[in-house]
Amino acid sequence: MNTLIQPAPVAVRTEPRDSWASVFALARFESRRLLLSIPVLVAFAVHLAWIVWHTLDSYDGFPALQDADRDTQSPPMLVGLAVLLTVNLAVLRSRRRDTDRHFDVLVVTTWRRSAAHVLSVVPAALLTAVCVGVQFGWEALKPGAVGHGSPGELLVGPLTVLLFGTLGVLLARLLKSAFVGPLLVVFFLFFVVLGVAPGDTESGTRWLNPVVGESSSETLPSDLLGRPAAWHALYLLGLGLTAAVLAVLAGGGRRVRTLYAALGGAMALTLVGAIAQSGGEPASLTAAREKATVDPEQTCVQRGRSTYCAYPEWEPRVGTWAQVVDEVSDLAGGTAHGQRLLVRQRVEARYGLSGDGALQPSGTAHEVTVGTRWGGPRVPEFSSAVAAVLVAGNEQAGSELCDGRIVTVMWLALGWQDQPMDALRKVRLDDSVSGSAIVLQPTDPLSMSAAQTDVVRTLLTRPRGEATARVKEHWSELTAPGLTTARAAELLGVKGITEKDGCQE
Amino acid sequence: MTSTVSASGLSLHYGGTRALDDVSLRLTPGVTGLLGPNGAGKTTLLRVLATAVPAQRGRFTVLGHDPGSTRGRQEVRRRLGYLPQTPGFHPDFTAFEFVDYVAILKEINNRAARHREVRRVLDEVDLGDVRGKRVKKLSGGMRQRVALAAALVGDPGFMVLDEPTVGLDPEQRMRFRELIARAGEGRTVLLSTHQTEDVAMLCHRVLVMAGGRIHFDGTPAELTARAAGRVWSSAERAPDAKAGWRTGAGTFRNVGDPPPGAELLDPTLEDGYLLTLDGHGLAVTA
């Protein structure tokens, strides 16, 4: 039985509401759940633990900030994967729990819910930015920090989290299975473990990856790096926005015209970033690298008896180098004690960060090379280079030492240090304190025989004053070409060394 | 009384099945019961009125808003409380979080006001003490009350409840009836149910639906009155009865056209419901 239709009632007036306010309210709700989810909490805990461990450990307090910025990029990938996984399941929640039937008749539409999910990953990205800021700020505040970080490099971590998060939303809108997210994470980790990533390391296509590392540990002046960090950040931002808009479109926003405009804008950003970052290195950069390697513009300053020439970013480090030079000179005898040295900072920049950065020893008298890295083993390495020049006259001759003078060089290099045995271990390639080994220097390495190592080790265990006195007393003979290791040992009061000629080993 | 919901000629076909066939109705404040056998089109009608699916023909308004347009549909949804049949839950949410989530989807944006409202509705369904408990830890009856709280949040003018008492034990059902009665004070509630007792106890009006059409629209007393003089008792099953069953006393209660001299019994709402379906050539399913 059908009833008669009465006249329609008067509409009940309600205050107009802002649907975007609901989107933001929902995004806050979802982001709170996201940040408190177990995978994301664990990922952030691991990230923070890594920051503490890495920053306490790295460079012994002498970071180059143009390297420190890149160090912030890889750990956020773990956070990104956790966010991808969690947001993917959050988007699928309504479908998996059959609440779609209910929620579909509520005011906030599906595409706005998708937009809220996209926005919910922003706080995770911001928190990552805070972590990155803490890590980089910590490095930058170290008294020995030099150089300049790049905002583009620092943005990579947070943008990676944003990209992974929006991909998680997009995946959930395209593929309704809860297994897709975990599967993608497993595949990603598999490729990371295998070190397989799309793109040739020498070509621009490697910049299509979210995080682009460098195979070399070389530190270059920041204007010679040639990394298109800002373009890459733009590319990542564009990619993240593209995924975000596609997720909203796939989530029911196909009728919203502004989304198509947003998609066009996001894709344009991606394209501009992708093309610009893959353009290769400009000729001006190649020329600047050539000049910085062959004929660098440096500021030279006088400290004590010696002169120090450094790239502008490293000028604050001159004092630290001078301290080492003074310590080594103080242990030397004869004319070497008051020898004026020219400490010149050099870098092999012509091959960029992909080269090994090996430097040839200088043939100029009393010139010592110092590299761009400092801290840890770099201190005894520089110290041994200074000692070699004081003993042999120049770096070229110093790098060819093989006789008993090696003992003198290594005593000068290590004798002044607070932890000389630790420094001996650090300066040797194999981290040993016995047997023969390669001794690293800023340019070509030295080679220590087992007997030379025994003599040096014995000297380092004796009171410093006693050994110093003997070195100064016999300085002429200890620095004379042809000195055998056995004779050096005898002069320094070390018994039991029978090796006649270190050069024969 | 001014109607809250007016529908005219609503039709919806699924393939060859007429889920709704030219349904017209008007609903006024209070609880209106919607009775009908399985497949009668009750859930389809509720889903159409809840704007979950659009009707292929006909139109309706809720509190003056026509959901035919996007803006009108949003206005209807702003005034709607919907409790679907076997509602889904997010088990890891607490009761508070689930209702809060629904409140956000109802555009209650101010956090403090929304939380006050969530606490209010949870208190209203007697779940204030367990609002911090995860939904998965709640009993079936409690979950159903969470769903009712979600429907109540935002003080909707029109509520659609699809078989809310299914699966509840008698005590929970009584409690739920109390809540529905309270929900019907000052607002329009359309209650779909198989339980004629629900209708008898709660509703000021009842609609009987079958085959996608409404076959009765009146008060429960009027539906009961349809069976006046058509319910009788007999020692054996009456062969001509439309329906008959043995009672606890051992006699048969028959519904239909009684033989002369039959011992007539007082009719119930269920008797009226059975005869209404039968009167339209429909199978009696009681």
Automatic annotation (TrEMBL), chain A:
UniProt keyword annotation of S-adenosyl-L-methionine present: no
Statement: the UniProt record of this protein carries the keyword Coiled coil: no
Entry keywords, A to Z: Membrane, Transmembrane, Transmembrane helix
Transmembrane segments: 34-56, 76-94, 115-138, 154-172, 179-197, 229-251, 258-276
UniProt name for this protein: ABC transporter permease
TrEMBL record, chain B:
Keywords: ATP-binding, Nucleotide-binding, Transport
Domain annotation ABC transporter: ranges: 5-236
Key word Membrane present: no
Keyword Transferase: no
Alphabetized InterPro entries for the sequence: AAA+_ATPase, ABC_transporter-like_ATP-bd, ABC_transporter-like_CS, P-loop_NTPase
PROSITE patterns the UniProt entry points to: ABC_TRANSPORTER_1, ABC_TRANSPORTER_2
A GO molecular-function descriptor: ATP hydrolysis activity
UniProt protein name: ABC transporter ATP-binding protein
Residues of the signal peptide: none
Stated family: Belongs to the ABC transporter superfamily.
PANTHER family the UniProt entry points to: ABC TRANSPORTER, ATP-BINDING PROTEIN
Superkingdom, natural source: Bacteria
Parts forming coiled coils: none
